[in-house]
Structure prediction request, 247 residues.
Amino acid sequence: MDRIIKITLGLFIVILAATSAFSGYTMYVMNAYQSSLESSYSYSCSITTDSTLTNVTLFIPVPVDPSGYSPVVPKFSARQINGVPESWQTTLFDTGKTTLVKVYIPSLVPPEGTSPDNPYTVLLTTEVPYETVIDTINPLKNGSVYRPVQNIEAVPCDSRVTAKGGSPVCSTFLTSLYAKYEADPNAAVSIKSSITGRNHWSVMGEKSNEYSSEISLLMHGANHGWANVNGTQQDSQGSYDYPFHIP
Prediction:
């Protein structure tokens, strides 16, 4: 009987020690994850031309979620977008379906040496910290993308995307953009905008996941109106080996 009691007590001590060790490890992992977690959005918008543009008015969509919130809007409102020339005027418009930034440029004169082979680009950028985990698996439903999103089609992901790991899902879509300006008939003008939502943490190594969305439009000569814009979307890139369930 004493032997059975000793064995039972020994097993109880082993189980208690294992449970305590597991609880301690779990607590360590959770603390490491929560203390290292960083979520952020990276936004950029570029306007490229090989010729002088005058009386430029653009309505460019900014990424918004289904409720109409955009992580970029506060940066535009506070004039904290990097790279905006002083002569440019930016105004935000909420259409009810999406949010647009109106850009008015009296004159965009490229520097000497600009040519079709060496175009001039103005790049606007900002980084936006985010307080909660970004949904990088289904940003169309829960995140900030360029809206309205139309004609969505699944496409194979290229090597640049697959190299980031995970099980990426890629697609193309259409949205719209307004551009009005005067230019040489041979002028080439392109507008590109992109957003990347990223989560990063460190538990037994650096890990991250992200999604990205980009729109682009190439125009020639003067332009006076709305145009369809091609978009690409890359979701579920990176690691989803979270230490515990993320709602």
